[in-house]
Each structure stands twice: as structure tokens, then as C-alpha cells.
Amino acid sequence: MDQASHQHPIAYFCAEYGLESRLPIYAGGLGVLAGDTLKAAADANLPMVGIGLLYHGQAAHQHITAEGLQQEQDHFFDPVDAGLEHVYVDDQPLFVRVHLTELDIWLQCWQKKIGPGVTLYLLDTHNDQNASSQRDIMCALYSGTQEEVVKQQLLLGIGGVKLLKSLGIKPCFFHVNEGRPAFLHWQLVRQYMDEHGVDHYQARQHAIKHTVYTNHTLVGAGNQSYPRWLIGKYAAYYADKMGISLDELLADGIGQDPDRFEVTTFALNTSARASGVSRIHTSLSEQTWPRYDWVNVTNGVHLPSWQDRQLPQLVDDRAGLWRRRLDNKHQLNQFVIERTGYGFDPNRLVIGWARRIAGYKHLEWLFADVERLRALLANDQRPVQLLVAGKAHFLDDGGKRLLQEVIGYMQRQLSGWALFIPDYDLDVARRLVQGSDVWLNTPEPGMEASGTSGMKAMANGALSLSVADGWVPEVDWSDKGWIIDPAQPSQSIYTLLERDIVPLYYQRDQQGLPLEWLERMGRSIRQAEQFSAARMVREYVDRLYPQECFHHPSDG
User: Using CA atoms, how far apart are residues 438 and 356, in angstroms rounded to an integer?
Assistant: First the structure.
């Protein structure tokens, strides 16, 4: 196995990447994590190439009507204006061809330099080599019919391996993130058979040895299954090229139901090792898929991208830390005014909630008793400001209805005390985690694999009010934040705010400083290093990645 180097980098495959708001090729936490991973690899001088797809912005922007209904607006962008560059080989733009049933799809290749030794490559169907229907395969992320989604996954996995070969890049191994890129296995096997003259069994073992997999969610949408006939339709060509039966090729993805092809099962069966993204999630993954070699690497965030860089130097300067907190809240207020036309008093205690709007993330818990919530927010002596941001997936009608209901409360009973910030993106997220005093996290217990927004907020001194799920139980919150009782979450949120959180924020010394609050802020900021992407990448190297690829000084 090759040593990791610029000639033999780690090949990191993911269906989405969140790097900049002007490049809308991400849907949520998975993409932002992937972007943070590439940045952390660059910081650590860890040779890595990212492989993804260039979606073209269909339904990329969120618009809220006067009635509070989410609508989607297209954002068809020029890749060059979004910071991408063409990939050239022998002075010609690189195109990669992938065979799908009777058609050849041509993928144009783009690149974005992340840092020393780290480049993101994106595959694009939107070019003149393809018919109109083929160009539209990548109009939007996670959309279209089941068959359109399968096509995206095939192009990512197979096209990504072909791209690397065309560039002369020979990865030391492949890191599959969620099951979507796992079809890279077929191309790795076929390529190794052709290059080394070995049979399918030997090539399959070689591919498995050079692949690791990370599961990022236990939610069904992240662990897709498809009719066996649908995958078989696209697999037949590859089975024929490998000289094996269709049943043999599909076997890695068949679980308990012989008529369904499970992408996660496929990824696990074609990887040497698997990882979860928090201790709880890894334990649940081991219970769900017990026959595999699991390790835990808790997620982390790229602190230089998310943390106000002045804060770590201010943790022992209470007055300086408080001034910086107020500065960040004033900046958040200006940002909110620019986005919504409405502002708030930055001297209020600010509660932030921002993430994808999905049923299991339970935004509605905060609004179970709107009158009690209003009394809490609109207290003359101890006022509180609520800020909410997030998008429902454009096919998620339930998420849209919930959002409309919440915005309705804000327009009526909570007017002046609660604001929704539309068109959630990386810029909104960064402002909110840097300017919120309390970060609210309300997932269904057992459903939040990790969650990273709370890590970003903690790094900026926000105090956590959260369900003990995902990464959260890995911290002692007794002197930093508060845990929501999952048996009665709404009641618990209101009581903790009324009894503990709001009074603590408004408890001031003679200089007007909330000393105990600032102590908790300092502890939170110090704790954040434990949840950095730098630590995560180190643990990938130590726990998940093949040790043969890395030279350790103790090896001599």
C-alpha cells in the first residue's frame, strides 16, 4: 500500500461540500463537514483530494412569502464566478466518460484549490457533449426521481475514480462518506482487473483493502435503498465487463430483503473499516450493522472558519470578553437588518436555533406553549430575543408546514421578540454562532448522529441548551450549559430558561458584567479545541485510515 503523499493522496468522496455561500453544492451538515475536513487536511499538510458533483443551483435559494410559506428560487451560477477553475490535461479541458445503460455521459471537470496539497474536484454534466436530459442530471442536490438520484451516485463514484486516473493521481486509499459515493467500488475493481490481469475476487479484495467508510446518519434518507431491478439495470454493463453474474455484483448491497439494494450495506461490504461520527452514533451503528469493524471519530469543525479569532485570547479577560461578545451581537444585529429589514436590541439575551428544518430536529418544541414563550421573551426586566434560521428540503412538505406555522407565531404573538432569518447559508450560520448567547439544539434522541452547529457556537462562547444526543454527551455541561429533559422537552426548555438561564445572564456585578456567565463562556471556548476538525483529522489518521499509508517515527 502506497504511503500518503502528493503523488498518492487520500481520495475523499462526498456528495456535497459546503465551502462558500456562493458555491451552493451543499444541503446541510454533511456538506459543511466535508468542506471543513478538506480545510483541516490542508492545515495539517495531509495530502487529500476531494471528489464531488457540481450541482447547478436549482431550488438553491429560500424565499419566504408574506404568508410565511417557503418557496425555492433557482440560483444558476457561473462556476468561474464561484471560484472554480477548469481542469486541463495536455492543454485540453478534461472530460470523463461514464457508461449508464445505453448512454455515455460526459463529465466536465472543475477544481478548487483548498490549500497546500488539497484540491476539490467536481464533476459536471452540464456541457455540450450531453443531450439536454443528461445535462439536467445535476441540476439539484438530492432531487428528482429515484433513478435520477441513482444516476448522480453512479456518476460520483465511477466518474470520480476515472477522473483520478485521467489526472495520473493514484490514491493511497479511498474514504467514502455516506453510501452515495460507494459505486466507486465497481470502477476500482474493474480498473484493477484491467491493469493487473487478475480475477474479480482478487480485484475486489484489493479494492476493499483500500477503502474506508463513514456513516453520517441513522436517518432513512441518508441510508437509501432502491429496487434491485433499478440498480441491476445499471449494474449489468459492469458485471459483464468484470466477467461475473449480475447477482454476484449486486450481492454486496442485498440485505434482508432480496428485492432491495441497500446503499449503506453496499458501502460496508466494500470497505475495510467503518466509522461513526459520535460515540452514541457509533454504538448505535454497531447495533444496526453488527458484522463490521467500527471505530469512532467524533466530528469536529474548522475553527479558523467558524470561531471569532479574538476569543481564545480573551478567556481570562472578563471585561474584554464581554466587550467582544457585545461587538459580535451588534454585528449580528446589522446582518439581520440587512437580511430581513428588522433589527433587535443586542443587549437582550439572544437565543439562536439554526439548522436544516426536518421533523426529527423538533423546532416545534420551542413553540408548544406560545403564550409562555411570549412571557419569557417579552419580560420588561429581562428581555430575550429569539433568532431562527433554516431550510426545509424543497420536497419536504412537512418541514415547510412547520416553518410556516413558526413564522406565523413570529408575525403575530411573538412580533418584536422573535425573527426568522431567510435563505440559510454559511454566512447566516457563521453570524449566528458568533452572535448568539445561547445555542438551542432540539433533536429527537438517537436521531442526531453528531451535529456540529453546537460545536461552532461553543467555540464562540455561546452556552448550550441541548438534548443529550450526538456529540453532546461527550462534554460535562454542569459548568457550561444545560441539558433538556427528553421526556418533557418543551416544559424543560421553558423551565431552564425561566429558572436558570435568563436570570444568570442578567446577574451583573458593579461594572455590569455577568461574571458567572462569562466564566461559563470561557470554559466553553477552551473546550472547543476538543471538537476541532484538526483533532478529527488526526483521529482519522490514527483510527480509521490504513496505518500502512502513514510513516510513524516509532516505526524507525
Answer: 18
pTM (predicted TM-score)? 0.96
Predicted confidence pLDDT, tens digits, the chain (556 residues): 788 888 899 999 999 999 999 999 998 899 999 999 999 999 999 999 999 999 988 878 899 999 999 999 988 889 999 999 999 999 999 999 999 988 899 999 999 999 989 999 999 999 999 999 999 999 888 877 899 999 999 999 999 999 999 999 999 999 999 999 999 999 999 999 999 999 999 999 999 999 999 999 887 766 889 999 999 999 999 999 999 999 999 999 999 999 999 999 999 999 999 999 999 999 999 999 999 999 999 999 999 999 999 999 999 999 999 999 999 999 999 999 999 999 999 999 999 999 989 888 999 999 999 999 999 999 999 999 999 999 998 889 999 999 999 999 999 999 999 999 999 999 999 999 999 999 999 999 988 999 999 999 999 999 999 999 999 999 999 999 999 999 999 999 999 999 999 999 999 999 999 999 999 999 999 999 999 999 999 999 999 999 999 975 444 3
Which of these, 97, 121, 95, lies nearest to 9 by C-alpha position?
A: 121
Strand runs labelled E in 304-427: 349-354, 384-389, 418-421
211/209 Cα distance (integer angstroms):
6
Alpha-carbon span 181 to 149, nearest angstrom: 12
Cell representation of residue 123: 464533476
Say how many C-beta atoms besides its own lie within 10 A of residue 102's C-beta: 6
Q: Is the separation of the CB atoms in 483 and 468 below 8 Å? A: yes
The residue assigned the cell 476493499 is 208
Homologous superfamily (CATH) of 303-530 is: Glycogen Phosphorylase B; (3.40.50.2000)
Unique residue bearing C-alpha cell 467514502: 176
Q: What residue type is 179 in one-letter code?
A: G
Cβ neighbours around 27 below 10 Å, total: 20
Residue ranges of the domains in the chain?
10-301+535-551, 303-530
Q: Look up the CATH number of domain 10-301+535-551.
A: 3.40.50.2000
